[in-house]
Amino acid sequence: MKKINTFSKKINLSLIATLILVVASVNLFNCSKENSDKIPVTTNSEKALEYFNEGIALAQKLRGQEAVYYYLKAIAEDKDFAMAYLQLAMVQTTPKLAFKYFNKAKALSKKVSEGEQLTILAIEAKFNNDREKENDYYLELIEKFPNDEMVHNTYGNFLYFLPKYKSAIKHLKKAIAINPELSQPYNMLGYTYRQLGDYDEAEKYFKQYINLIQNDPNPYDSYAELLLKKGEFEESIKYYRRALEIQPKFIASIIGISTNLTLLNRHEDACEELERIESLSDDPGELKRMHYAKAVANIDIGNFERAFEELRENISISKSIDDNLALGQDLINLGTLNLMSGNYENALKYYEKSIEYFERSDMSQDLKYYVRRQLFVNASYVAYLRNDIITLNMYKEKYETSAKKTMNLNELRNVHALAGLAYLLEENYVDAIFELKQADQENTVLLYFIGTAYEELGDYKKSQKIYKSVAHFNSLNDMNYAFIRKTALAKLDDL
Fold first, then answer.
1. Higher pLDDT, 44 or 7
2. CA gyration radius for the chain?
3. Alpha carbons 370 and 372: distance in angstroms, whole number
């Protein structure tokens, strides 16, 4: 189970999506208050600690919605239980509640131990998309708690998403060396080796993960995602079904099945599979995941009208729960879909409108500044597709000036992406390739642009290789990939 990318280099509320879906798997907290080698947990109630431990055990297995009950029970026993509030934030499916509970944990941070304070600061940096500060806090935690397996596991997860895969492997293996029974590092080692293209090593760790916790759904879900990536769609579906046999409400596996069905060009079957979510859950966040996934399936087949209907359903849900942050994200998704369908004026309107809702939300001022900067990125994509080099360069320069001050790796990748787009419009294909290769290599649209640059240079062997990698990228529930997949396949037929 992992993250989502989108066409525009939008705010990483794929940051929030990733936070909600992944951070639950990187809990820092050990439940022994006496062991100085581990980060302590501060609570005045043994009963609260007992409930907290049960929540942690579930969250570590990516069963966050089941963990909610135990975190709430822990808070009922100890209303000042900062770490329970923090963990409750991590398993929310909507941004509004995630920020609500995080802010409560932050308000209580002066009452907890130094290790817990550093943990809260690290998560705050994650919320603010400040990777440099987040890294510093994790390094401080490792220095103070070098024998805490969860600290190494957390830092390994953090490094994975930078992405610094070899460093991530080092810390994930350190976590296993300290505690071979800890399941999470096996999962992330599988994903890390997958990203390095070492599918055999990835399979080894995913199967060890399965063997370690055979009666939990996520190990089967993770291995199914490896099979999806390898293009073994029918076999992948079997493992997703196995996860659902264990936990029928494991929504990630339903979405995984729908992705496989989409890539098998069984789009109606994919949507029918997703519609089962409505009978399994009334959680707003999970219903929104269903509509987003249905939009992805329809984008893949070129049915933009139905995709728009699904994304508008998400706007209705966000309004019903009065979640401004979610509404901002929904509007960005609509802007991106307009961009994909060629309605550039509407795309800009939705991107600009999204800022209003982000400004009304409870997220930090630092993250609001980050969101505003991403408007320059989205407007640059619009300018690129309009072949408007003057406007593109104007937004590119504005973004570069502000983004370089942050030294945020995601933003630096955006800078390279925009430079690459500008070089493409100027027909400077060599420099375009140089810049785009330093942008987000998980963004299949940008990879496709690299292919077009090689094609323009007459290097058909390299362009064909790029188009093939894009066509068979096999991303999980990804708007970018749904948009570009069949275009890349058509290119392969033409060359």
1. 44
2. 22
3. 5
- The pLDDT tens digits of the residues spanning 354-365 come to 999 999 998 889
Task: Kindly tell me if the per-residue pLDDT of 293 is higher than 90.
Answer: yes
Which of 65, 29, 113, 479 minimizes the C-alpha distance to 286?
Answer: 65
What is the number of other CB atoms lying within 10 angstroms of the CB of residue 461? 8
pTM higher than 0.85 = yes
Confidence of residue 61 (pLDDT cuts 50, 70, 90): confident
Contact 228, 259 (CB under 8 A): yes
Instruction: Answer yes or no: are the C-beta atoms of 223 and 205 closer than 8 Å.
Output: no
d(CA 285, CA 187): 24
Distance spanning both ends of the chain, measured CA to CA? 35
Q: What is the amino acid identity at position 134?
A: E
* Whether the Cβ atoms of residue 376 and residue 395 lie closer than 8 Å to each other: yes
- How far is Cα 344 from Cα 332, in angstroms, rounded to an integer? 13
- Percent of the chain, pLDDT > 70? 93
Q: What is the pLDDT of residue 205?
A: 98
- The three-state secondary structure class of 276 is coil
What pLDDT, on a 0 to 100 scale, did the predictor assign at position 16? 34
State the Cα–Cα distance between residues 25 and 156, nearest whole angstrom: 11
Q: How far apart are CA 105 and CA 174, in angstroms?
A: 29
For 332-347, what is each residue's pLDDT tens digit?
Answer: 999 999 999 999 999 9
DSSP string across 228-255: HHTT-HHHHHHHHHHHHHH-TT-HHHHH
**Mean pLDDT of the residues in the chain:** 92
Q: Quick one: angle between helices 344-360 and 365-385, nearest 10?
A: 180
235-258 burial, b at 16+ Cβ within 10 Å, e below that, comes to ebbebbebbbebbebbbbbbbbbb
| Residue whose structure tokens are 């995602």 | 225
Class of CATH domain 1-214: mainly alpha
| Domain parsing of the chain, residue ranges | 1-214
348 backbone dihedrals φ, ψ, rounded to 5°: -60, -40
Cβ–Cβ under 8 Å, residues 385 and 339: yes
Let me know: does 210 contact 57? Beta carbons within 8 Å.
Answer: no
Tokens of 189: 């080692």
Q: Torsion angle of alpha carbons 307, 310, 316, 317, nearest 10°? A: -130
> Rounded distance, CA 404 to CA 231, Å?
38
| CB-based contact 424:453 (threshold 8 Å) | yes
C-alpha neighbours within 13 Å on the C-beta side of residue 428: 12
CA distance 158 to 4: 16
DSSP tag of 169: H
Q: What whole-number distance in Å separates Cα of residue 297 and Cα of residue 74?
A: 40
Report CA-CA distances (Å) from 491 to 339, 460, 464. Answer: 21, 11, 8
